[in-house]
Amino acid sequence: MKNGEAAPVRYRFVRWRGKSVHAVTAMLAVTLSLSLSGRARAAVPGDNDFADRAVQQVYQPAAVRFSRTTAELLEAAENSCETRSPEALDSLLAAHERAVAAFSLLELYRTGPLLEDNRQNRLFYWPDKRRVGERQMRALLADAAAPSLTADDIADKSVALQGFPALERLLHGERTPLHFSEGSETPDCQVAMAIIGNIDAMAKAIEKGWQDEAPHVMSMRSPASDSEFYRTEEEVLRGLVTQILVGADVIEDRKLSTLSGEQADIRTAPLWRSGLGLLMIRGNLESLRALTIDTGLAEASGLENELAFEFRSADGMLQQLQALPALTDDSGDFTAEAESLLRAVMAVVGGIRYTLNDRFVATLGISPGFNSEDGD
Fold first, then answer.
1. DSSP 74-113
2. Please, are residues 220 and 230 in contact by the beta-carbon 8 Å criterion?
3. Staple 229 to which of 6, 14, 93, 219, CB 3.0 to 4.6 Å?
4. What does the pLDDT look like over 286-311, one tens digit per residue?
5. Beta partners for residue 334, in sequence order
């Protein structure tokens, strides 16, 4: 492929010697891990530059944006509950969408501040296959103490009541317009403000955890044998690559799979009540693009143009999906146009995942470490 040429899109729903490409990809990952772990990693000039770029160009901007949007969300919630107007509620829903978009840009960076204090699960408890959050929310709203709840109170409760899925039930439920127009004394308003206050507190902690003087950041930039985070530059690189590979797994196997295939069901998708699932997936993909390309890792592997094209293709298709009047018809089935676009997105994301697991890892000569960083 000539430099600058767009790479062909890979379609992963093929079979190879009786095995699905999903299985082949898994075998490749295991094979690479075993083969590379026994030899030295390929030399990559300026190893520490990757860590610096990741911190300055990827992690820190994402954390600052998330913290800013949660502060705006808290202010919008307070205003909505005080003014009791449809306009204030619209502003609150818009602020909620911006906060979700910002969170999606760091959700898959499952390392450091996001994993500390179980923040990843507390911010986004999903999937909730047993509908634990729904049952607990009903019980919470029926509790006589609900109108006096604080952010600290919510932080001590179940993870299913603390993050964006719990907040979505309040902001996009059937009760929302009525109860938010009745003011801050209603349980819905006070519980929502408590949840948002807790989200904002976690966002502030994440932002602080990515500042230059934070121990995790200092260890990334200057790994040492006695560090509790990173002992070598190779461990830093392995951590970056692991986040990329596991992130691609989460997007395809968990999120997109709820929207495509025989078992597809819009009600199992992330944030389906608010219709923000596609927005979140777009942000997730952008976060992987940033960690892969903006850090220089894709350039070092010789795959920058190819991966950039594939990420753009996936984002363009997701934008087309967002522009559709509806993803499903009155019976809840996906429309033909939505189904076609979803299959195309799955194919392109599958191509990205295959490229990352195959040539990206092999060219860098890094054995990814599947450990607690994957958050799963």
1. HHHHHHHHHH--HHHHHHHHHHHHHHHHHHHTTTT--SGG
2. yes
3. 219
4. 999 999 999 999 999 999 999 999 99
5. 328
Cα separation, 49 vs 365, whole angstroms: 17
Residue 37: how many other CB atoms lie within 10 Å? 12
d(CA 33, CA 366): 8
Reply yes or no: is the peptide bond before residue 127 cis, omega within 30 of 0: yes
pLDDT (tens digit, 9 = 90+) per residue, 186-217?
A: 678 889 999 999 999 999 999 999 999 999 99
Residue 227's SS3 state is coil
The angle subtended at Cα 313 by Cα 323 and Cα 249, nearest 5°, is: 100
Instruction: Look up residue 315 and give its two tokens.
Output: 């984002």
Helix axes 336-355, 21-37, angle to 10 degrees: 20
pTM of the model: 0.85
Instruction: Find the angle CA(47)-CA(51)-CA(53) to the nearest 5 degrees.
Output: 105
- Gap between the Cα atoms of 359 and 291, Å rounded: 17
Please state, for a pLDDT cut of 70, what percent of the chain lies above it: 82
Strand locations in the chain, DSSP E? 15-16, 19-20
CA dist 1 to 4, 215, 238, Å?
A: 8, 42, 28
Q: How far apart are CA 106 and CA 97, in angstroms?
A: 15
Mean pLDDT of 240-257: 96
313 to 52, 74, 153, 359: CA distances (angstroms)? 28, 35, 44, 19
